[in-house]
């Protein structure tokens, strides 16, 4: 085995179509706490955008999220931990939201876990990526009755009365 190709003998260039190479492969990390709380890339991205824009509205717009959804996530984050992750200053001129020191720590811990997970899984991820078929094309959600939907791997399909 050599060259970091995961033992497949294929180089990065021969791994398939554009977008299938290692550079396009991503690993996502989500922490599912025992009691059902979750911390994942969306909440962290929102906190980082709030830090940058100092506004929940501006942060939501910057990451393509609705203001309502952003507020719900911020509220969930503030209830999730013993310490607040943001503070707001209503009525203040200019920026009205700041990420707290604890919020910064949450971001830092999450990003550290991401880096550690990426490092720990890089060999396996490279091997999986190098084994991808160049002929793969994602299927759209097939409608019942479509030949693709009738595949035994497609799952149960309700029979239509006729």
Beta-strand portion reads 5-15%
Report the order of strands and helices.
EEHHHEEH
Superfamily (CATH H level) name of the domain at 38-122:
Winged helix-like DNA-binding domain superfamily/Winged helix DNA-binding domain
Radius of gyration: 22 Å
Instruction: Please list the strands of the largest sheet in the order they lie side by side.
Output: 1-2
Largest sheet: 2 strands, antiparallel
CATH architecture of the domain at 38-122: Orthogonal Bundle
Task: Tally the helices.
Answer: 4
What is the general shape? globular
Residue share in helices?
25-40%
Average residue-wise pLDDT: 80
Low-confidence stretches: 1-22
| CATH class descriptor of the domain at 38-122 | Mainly Alpha
Write a concise keyword list for the protein shown above:
Molybdate_resp_trans_reg, two-stranded antiparallel sheet, WH_DNA-bd_sf, globular, WH-like_DNA-bd_sf, mainly alpha, 162 residues, Molybdate transport system regulatory protein, disordered N terminus
